[in-house]
Amino acid sequence: MLLSIHPVNPQARIVKQVTECLKDGGIIIYPTDTIYGLGCDIHHPKAVERICRIKKIDPKKSQLSFICRDLSHLSDYTKSIDTPLYRMLKMYLPGPYTFILPASKQVPKILKSKKETIGLRVPNNVICQTILQQLDNPILSASLPGEMVEELTDPEIIYATFGNLVDIVIDGGPGGIIPSTIIDCTTDDWMVLREGLGEWAA
């Protein structure tokens, strides 16, 4: 199913349809402030497994990440954040960044890496934030299968390519082609693991 959602004023009725699908364990493709991604409610292990099958990845060996609605929501899913880290996160979020942080007990086991870490994002995207507010749970954030090509910025092409693998594809307008910048914050020496859309000057 391809659903158009207004990128600035998301229609409540359609957002409700998306959140109900997620609550039922469904999988969606949705826009972020970077690229379109695969997502599900993180508290549905079968949906997480389904996304891992689509991506042909082993959840135990992959660094999975998910999106939260704001910094206080994010802080539920990582172990205590000290003042310098909090200030840095506050400066960069919401934005096109994924921060690798130690996972708290609230992170479902299937999402934790062997190192007990998790990638956390707060996208600067109205559609994401509206869905997260209604769902009240984080959403898995996984890139689409295969190489990132120009065509996959178009929701209609995304639907034609992957629509049979997921329950809903959201058309929130053209997407980007550059993914988020990934920063490892598991030690005091924060380190860029992938340079993406977000500029990093820490």
UniProtKB/TrEMBL annotation:
Superkingdom field: Bacteria
YrdC-like domain span: 12-198
GO MF term list: double-stranded RNA binding
InterPro entries membership: DHBP_synth_RibB-like_a/b_dom (IPR017945), Sua5-like_dom (IPR006070), SUA5_domain (IPR052532)
Listed name of the protein: Threonylcarbamoyl-AMP synthase
Record organism: Hanamia caeni
